[in-house]
Amino acid sequence: MSFERVCALSDVKEPGALRVELDDIDIAVVRFEGQIYAVEDVCSHAEVALSEGEVEEFKGAPTIECWLHGSCFDLRTGEPTNLPATEPVSVYPVRVEGDDVFVDTEEDGALPLAASN
């Protein structure tokens, strides 16, 4: 694993998302109910920034919503929770140390749905 600092924890609103670029990858660092997540910051359906969407619970899952067409993505797995998106977005492992947020873009941080329940 190769974690890199992407932002300060205080830079990410609760709930909310912050767009960062790391290793030529756009990442949405998301804060929801005290947890920090990192997902690819591009909707798999419409190629718009997910970090501009709402962060909320959707059907029991922590999600980020694409502002253009309303697809939501599970922050734990990257899987879409509703249409029109049908393809997942990448998720990345996150580590918080003090006020620093670190993300590893070399690993897929998706939790299997069974493990995330």
UniProtKB/TrEMBL annotation:
This is Non-heme iron oxygenase ferredoxin subunit. CDD domains: Rieske_RO_ferredoxin. Residues 4-103 form the Rieske domain. It comes from Blastococcus jejuensis. Keywords: 2Fe-2S, Iron, Iron-sulfur, Metal-binding. Pfam families: Rieske. PROSITE patterns: RIESKE. Gene3D superfamilies: Rieske [2Fe-2S] iron-sulphur domain.
